[in-house]
């Protein structure tokens, strides 16, 4: 049966929670997040090839420094996005994220050295951390508790669908016109449109979170509800609460293997003689299935719960990464990318829904920020780990190591996480 729309106190005026009640703003935020994803997608095919073919970086660790820079700055920006959006409002943080992102495609076009590419990815990390985190927080604000999984599925589907479309488009453009500058013209258009929509059309949603918080005046559990300091929230999300901390670990490993897919897989494909266009297609397959799959999996988690979907998704990712390691041709890698996308679709919106389930509306934005700090820190950890192992033992060894870590994360969720969705009759441990 559908959840009823919560009744809000009269003092909160016309504010209403729910997807249908806030459909226009929700759809606008979906479009904005697609543009955020497109800003990331402009790099997925072209930048690894820039490292190899333009800047001639022979060591994997050196070639992956741009992902380290991106992951570290995005992780930090995620943390501050939650805190700043609670203090100053969601919209100013979203606009600030787009302002920082505007120079990125221009720097990639004009970069005279690899250091410029790394610096561009510092700015890209801030852009993604502030803008993507804020669209997540704003959608959670708008929809309330009943459709949180669906909302996260739509948000992440839009973002990673745009990553896929842009990765494939830039690969096709690069195959026709070269690696620079034409593939990055898409990024210029995305940044201009995203900034314009965020500044002129998006409305503030912080009052929706306050409205939902007013429905929970009495703490159910002092460790999960009520006003907490940012430090206490960080500890709860990182280690204290079994669901929040398990989600944080799974999220970090998920993006650790995404760093592998972003930075190492294209180099593996190129070493086997694949064309730029075919590399672009493989780079697009994974986020395409990931993005489209979240339209189902977010909704599905609202009906069957979160825990088992996450655990199964991590194990499927591990199997897919192993298939990349044993493959030597396009058809096998294409199947692996489809499976990797399906596994990630099971995990990604569901982890965000876990944070929304457990965190009280009064401190939910900061919990999302802490979770995304850990999750996107996985980019930096993954790039460093994959690069070091590839340089020391070969690229296949690095892929198998990440597959093993991903399987371990799935088992941690299966053993440690409690079910967080309010519908299943499960008691938190």
UniProtKB/TrEMBL annotation:
Record carries keyword Aminoacyl-tRNA synthetase: no
InterPro entries (UniProt xref): MFS, MFS_dom, MFS_trans_sf, MFS_Transporters, Sugar_transporter_CS
Residue spans crossing the bilayer: 58-81, 93-110, 116-137, 157-178, 184-202, 309-333, 339-359, 395-415
Species this chain originates from: Streptomyces caeni
Keyword Membrane: yes
Subcellular location: Cell membrane
Keywords associated with the record: Cell membrane, Membrane, Transmembrane, Transmembrane helix, Transport
Protein's UniProt name: MFS transporter
Domain Major facilitator superfamily (MFS) profile: residue ranges: 17-421
Topology term for the membrane: Multi-pass membrane protein
